[in-house]
């Protein structure tokens, strides 16, 4: 981090100790009271800023968007954004909206610059909204995404018919509710890392996705790691990180 | 049931009301205090008597075996029988013992007389003890049993190489711990009923088999029903019932 | 499966390797993007196609129905279909609807061709919707169904008065919420396999049916296997499979 | 309570305020540091003193017994007393011991003086230790106890053959593990209050008795109330209270 | 039961065997399809008929009420009856209604004929609806009821000020949510049986009353048994049973 | 407590025993049927009266407010007060209202008289309502409060930039949902006691705040204790107690 | 923190930037590979160093003790130290040992310098080991501790007889298993902060202390906050912090 | 996969259809009854074979090792291998053993060929065994591993002093029990993917690691995905996959 540079400036006399301390404190975010914006995260983490829309009022989201705009942030993804909130925000910002995935998108999709393709699989039709959250997130972070939906394990021939695509993916995002077995089967068929996303699809003892989460956690395939229930965003984010791995020595 | 016959005997004057009441009460079981033996269950339920060995002292089991012997029962299966209890019982009864499956077996295996074969699958090597409990139970109840072990879904090619056997089974018992996905995959590949047995194989969030149980409960295959964790006996019993279905009009 | 036939066609020169691979991939389902339809499942699994209505938009369901119609599928059961979705679909397809059981039915009920009768029992009046889902499913799959409702174990005389019917059933579907004891009692009274369906009927520590599910799992009757909470469809499907058992050698 | 009497003594001048306060504080128990003995509970609660043996050292139990002896307490029941602790205590006190029920008994069984009989039922043989804890507790508190063991609901004819005894009981203690359905069936057959005791008998998803507890909680019979898992003592105690009801106006 | 009488009638020639069997089957309830009414339960169980209103349609409830009326039942309590259902039923039956306790009451309150008074305590104001369900149930079953509300343990002086009433009760119903400690404290203060009713009052980790249920289950007072969360009816019913204990020899 | 004084008055003859008993019973609260008001708690506990608004009708709250007014209570905090209830109450009492924190406030904020400042931290923007409940509660109880919001641990630099404030707080209230790690990090950075408040912010396996609660319970920082999910009031109350510690010898 | 001082030294030229960075990194702990010792925590947190003994080998603990000795730390508390580990460590360090509380103590107890007394209460005799962990921890951190054991709420008169001591405490640590009601009752009686410690004392549905934890979490007393099950150390630590509050402006 | 090649061989006449089918079935694994060995997985998955040692007998492990040896596999990692099993296996194979991590290692560590370094962090000393399982696994799969242990979040300065190493890692494995906050903090500090491993370190409400698992699942850092409790192997495996990402077009 830049603490070294700051210290050197003190050493050089460019900064006083007080100024340095102030710099350390003031620099990395903008404080708008109810939120502290990581205006430098784009640099530090290599990605666009994301706003988690749930639990924020439209006014708070607008405040954040304005602060970002002032800091030059042009590409923003708002997750878990209800239609009502979108309508209010769209009065002030030119936001595209995916109702299915509850995503608000500011700015254009960047050109893909990852190592390969991210493959998004779903067990059923009902898992598609979560899969779309993952897919769009990955696209907004610079990845090429391939979607294959409704290929649950109770009809293996459907999944097997896409074996080439599966074998060729760089990262797989396996989105499934109910018993969540898709992650294990995909993990066994593929070489690449699999990010498993349990969904709340199901009823009764599916416990809002907890059964799928636990099943994925206990996958007998070793190349599977798991994110939270319905967390399409997290899966897309982590997959993008993996798809942008670089040589570090 | 025979209540009709008993009533008719009262009508005929063959029995007094008191005698009839006594008959209804005394007939169907032998009471040895700590246990009430269904000496007629062989007829009523079409199967040999089973003793659940856990939580009974060797003396109690011996008492039950003796009472059964007096009622002419020659074929008995004792489940969840520890080696220690077996050693004590073997002093008085000529019992075969499977330490792996913790089964004590009195009498010979009957000739198979079911509709077809019962196929027992396991996800891994560690699931074999439970699978053997299921397989031996089914054999003792008059079924031909085929075993295919260690064909978990993370290596689908292993399972798929037995596709003929799977397609040809009358009933499948799918025994698996961890994420329990074997039941769904087998259910999707096969036409026949699948009895899923979750096992306590696993660690951490497998919760002693509860994760596998829940996953099997939420199977996306519709021909799957589930028995308790590690309940190989119940699966073998239910599979045998299904494999002995008859025309009832 | 037909992989053997396909391979033989390659050997015969009837098919090239590429054509064969294509055949394997393309044959078993129709891909309409958000869903992959098992157009051959009727043959492979011996049953009509079922659509799980929850989590699908009316438009998606219509798309699936149209694809099925094109493939000649005339008998379709749509489960968990809300009244709203039904109204939309009924504009284009001549669908019968059971609001109680949330079932949409396309095509007529087939003539029963099973081994015997499937008996559907409920513990209470509130369990009837789930029982109806099971009963109608079984009827649509070619089974004669007998219904006895509100015979919970706290009033045993009610259940016992149907002892003849119970003893004569081929398969029993025991539908109960609260403590779910009906499955154990029915299992003890009957010779045949019992499929237990826990329901979400109850309150407080019934945990939306989980208590009934666990109780059924731990049934002291050995001829009981269990499906998911409120899964009337699965119970009807599995019971139908069992009621259609054939000799397989 | 006697606060009224104490206050009157102050009013009378028999006691000073300080003496009264002292009396209130010192009277109802004897303090031996690690335990505060309710030496007056026999009067206040109408029962003998009980020592919960688990988590106490033999020395602590001896200390309590000595303090009780000094206060004239001759009839003591020690629950959950391991054989090891019993052996140590038996060196100093003439204690009878039931290893099965883990009970240490000081003094003789009193003559029964309740309204009627307490009936103790168990689902299986393995539930007997808990049932014995209940039965002996009730006997030590002045009740006549009838035991009927191994009458689980999967073999209803066994339970029904004791219908007279069931109909004639004053209180029923239903002891069962696994699915715990005995409580509901007994509750439906009987007029009297049923105290249900779930036991930890079972495996897998019986969760150490929690499944039975929940099932009993959700009993469809209204005359059932429940105590903790394996709490035979509590059931015997509560049943005794009910069996000793008196007219209070 | 009357099976003895029926058998004697066969013996006497008053009944044929077929007639007897029919009698056994037909007598104890009226079958209206979706419900089986225990028209004799009033005799057999000593109480009026109760209808559990939840999960039944107004039409079903009306059908049951009509069948009851035909059988001469004049006093009926309908529990968990929503205002909407009440309004529909009130068009045909003269029903009193308690919106707070969601109770519909047909017929007058009987004169109390129990051994003493049933005391209903609540921890807080929010527990009152459940307490009222218990209190009215007990009153409808012939008990004198005393209500003391909002005497939770965090303000012990409030509870202690009613010590006389507590000491004088025949049965106590302790209704509390949150940590449910009221049951233990009341159990310690009183001689009589305590029926604990956990309520769903609370938030966060109160888990809809499960925390209170578990706490009550683990009460350190031995005269406490527990019914389901919010089950005021069950508590009132069980308390009434206890308050109507008779000498049985 | 004053029992000593009362006893002395009896001793002095100022009070008769009956009067004394009456005094003990009548004094500490006002009974308005559905509620028992601790009119002296202000003295005994050193704080203003709080009304828990949930589960009380507006009429009940008004009744309580009136009873308080009659007892001279001028500063009242109503927690979990919905807008609807507020509107009704505001017709009769001059109540300020915070919709975000669902607080109704009667009377003015007292001057801070604590040992130091109470610092309220939140992990995110969505935690602010709970934090405000804590902050306003603490202010109403006489504390100076500092708020720092949206300083979750995934962006440590945000939290670290307030290190001075953290080091200088007397008590910290750490409000966080999701993984609840803020409590541990704050606990490690600060010397003072930390009261952790898990919030229901999150989704999927956050289980309505239970994950945060458990994480906080298992904090590796030793100066952390925890209150219930979303219990901002409790945290503010406990923090105020700590901030008002006095020398007691 | 000292970052300001370090920066000033850079400004003064006393330190170079590199030296400063090194200082920040190296200063606050000693790294012995498997552990990083907070050698300055005594200053920073105002307390002696604590070693959590569970999960560490005796060799690791010795290594840590040696590193501490080298840094001049003379007073160390080792929690959850088994007898076996103690024996090994006692060969090299003069350690006192409390087997009951599993504590190893190096160095003498400091003179109490807190605001008042810390009162440790237990519900039963079995809770004493956890209570001792709390009490000794508090004593080692400079507090006067008063112990009152076995004053559970089922015998309120026992607790009430210590009312003076309770009213006079600065902080109360309420240690209880089973239903954990002691915390609520103590919280209601006392003015001071209560730290509740659930214990794993109990059986069945006590779930190893989780029932007590949840009950304490849902306490209706507002001055209660909770630490982990059996976490006597944490309670003693937090209580000490509270008992050492100072004026901070 | 090679199905295309096999089909082409049939087309060429090199293989008959039967031979081809046989090839598909026999090729990818060796069947030794209780296990099916993926002898080609090294090629297909790019890694050495792993044997999960738990639940396998030493004889079974030896059988698998022998079958592997026959297939030329020279580098094998046996996880969860107890000392007893190791001793037996070491009689026949030259196995290195890490008792701490319960790993048996056959063959030498390969030269690292990943993109960068894998950093393994632990929260405490007790987490080291799981961390070592992860670290050794990663090393055996060709990765350079850096270990930093005992840097839990309650002492942030310890973690921050390694900021350079953290910022420079390619993948981070965060191993922590208790509240598991290390994953979130590391995720916030680093750019790279973080694999979180919850451990069973803790007590009480840590629930054997489930609290840490849930906390990690709900991490507010988006670059965190999670594996099962104590699954060091899975973390090392997945991290290795990520560290060996290649360009795929």
Verbal overview:
Eight copies of one chain form a homooctamer. Chain A has about 250 residues and is of the alpha/beta class. Chain A folds into two domains: about 100 residues, no CATH class; about 130 residues, Rossmann fold (3-Layer(aba) Sandwich), CATH 3.40.50. Helices cover about 40% and strands about 20% of the residues of chain A. In chain A, strands 8-7-9-10-11 form a five-stranded parallel sheet, sandwiched between helices. The first copy, chain A, has a four-stranded mixed sheet with strand order 3-4-6-5, with helices on both faces. In chain A, strands 1-2 form a two-stranded antiparallel ribbon. In chain A, a hairpin with a 4-residue loop joins β5 and β6. In chain A, α1 packs antiparallel against α2, α4 crosses α5 and α6 packs parallel to α11. The longest helix of chain A is centred in the N-terminal third of the chain and has 13 residues. About 0% of the residues of chain A have low confidence. Chains F and G meet through α8, β11 and α11 of F and α8, β11 and α11 of G.
Strand order of the largest sheet of chain A: 8-7-9-10-11
Helix proportion range of chain A: 25-40%
Segments of chain A where pLDDT lies below 50 for 5+ residues?
41-46
Order of helices and strands of chain A: HHEEHEHEHEEEHEHHEHEHEH
* Structural domains of chain A: how many: 2
CA radius of gyration of chain A: 21 Å
CATH class of the largest domain in chain A: Alpha Beta
CATH architecture of the largest domain in chain A: 3-Layer(aba) Sandwich
The global form of chain A is globular
Per CATH, what is the topology of the largest domain in chain A? Rossmann fold
Assembly context of the chains: homooctamer
